[in-house]
Amino acid sequence: MILHADLDSFYASVEQRDDPALRGRPVLVGGGVVLAASYEAKAFGVRTPMSLGRARALCPQAVVVPPRMGAYAAASEAVFAVFRDTTPIVEPISIDEAFLEVDGLRRISGTAEQIAARLRAEVRRRVGLPITVGVAATKFLAKVASGVGKPDGLLVVPPGQELAFLHPLPVEKLWGVGPKTAAKLRERQIHTVGHVARVGEAALVAMLGAHAGRHLHALAHNHDPRRVTTGARRSSIGAQCALGRGRRSFADVEAVLAALVDRVTHRLRGAKRAGRTVTVRLRFDDFARVTRSRSLLKATMQTGAVLRVAVDLLREAQPMIDQRGLTLVGVAVSNLDGEGSVQLELPFEPPRADGLDAAVDRVRDRFGAASLQRADMIGRTLHPSVPLLPDP
């Protein structure tokens, strides 16, 4: 049996934990965009990533608090410590959720349901946060169970009852079914997972394409052979920032992008990873998203090298930004090499930029990330909009 443990409204729950005055009240975390909403706010229809203005219209009595990423990172570390005390086989999914393999613990720890109940109690006791756990025989179904069991619940799907639990659920519960795919399915009167299961694989492939059709056919029959894995290295390292709904100058966006590149390359060097592909992610006022990528001839972890490519990609998208407005900008480096493998050039001397990056890293590691910042970020704030996993 596999556990999927997922903290409830993580950012908002941390705020309510740390400020008793917020408990039981609708809480919104964010600036121009809602990064997290408490369940009291969600009851009014508030969702992420909704604009703060829209959220206030739906829930005028909501309390808005700025994000405190340090507090969320500390809470995440404490929760993952509970996970690792529960089982050595933990697969992180994000800052606030993970899969746990408990199949081999029956003799010493009891059933999966008993383990899940103790885990929830320990997270509440040691960290002070609510968490929902889904228990099932596959990773897919465990995640679905935790979603159905929210908030602050425990839902077990017993062996032999998987399809009875899964088939009545709406098609959106299948991984990979977003609004567009759901609309295509509903146009053909396919409303539930059971309906998908009754459609032949060939028909789903004709309807949605080869990959999506086969994927949904397998999930609708609860075919998910993946096991919980540990120690997998990340395929990319990135960061992003919500900008809010107000118009910003292109210079403002460039400054934020540079600060994000600082953060990403610092983490690359800390993880001893060098990357070949730089990707810039943008979200516009209408919530449409685009990405722009460029691959380098050799892997790098230099701030300057990554920044030059990222700014070029951003400038290529400037006409769209000027026309449509921008609510989020992000940057990621992928195609990572292990152990900081970087091809040297003749003569074999470290570039001066490496020495500058190392000096900046030492200052920030000793005195904190805010001890050094770019001049163009003075007076500006940088609020990450989604949690990021710690680097392995």
Automatic annotation (TrEMBL):
Its EC number is 2.7.7.7. It is an enzyme of class 2 (transferase). It catalyses: DNA(n) + a 2'-deoxyribonucleoside 5'-triphosphate = DNA(n+1) + diphosphate. The active site is at E97. The keyword Magnesium applies. Residues 2-178 form the UmuC domain. SUPFAM superfamilies: DNA/RNA polymerases, Lesion bypass DNA polymerase (Y-family), little finger domain. The record marks Y11 as: Substrate discrimination. The keyword DNA repair applies. Pfam families: IMS, IMS_C, IMS_HHH. It comes from the Bacteria. Its cofactor is Mg(2+). Its main location: cytoplasm. Gene3D superfamilies: 3.30.70.270, 3.40.1170.60, 5' to 3' exonuclease, C-terminal subdomain, DNA polymerase, Y-family, little finger domain. Mg(2+) binds at D6, D96. It is found in: Cytoplasm. Transmembrane segments: none annotated. Binds 2 magnesium ions per subunit. Poorly processive, error-prone DNA polymerase involved in untargeted mutagenesis. Copies undamaged DNA at stalled replication forks, which arise in vivo from mismatched or misaligned primer ends. These misaligned primers can be extended by PolIV. Exhibits no 3'-5' exonuclease (proofreading) activity. May be involved in translesional synthesis, in conjunction with the beta clamp from PolIII. Monomer. This is DNA polymerase IV. It comes from Actinoplanes palleronii.
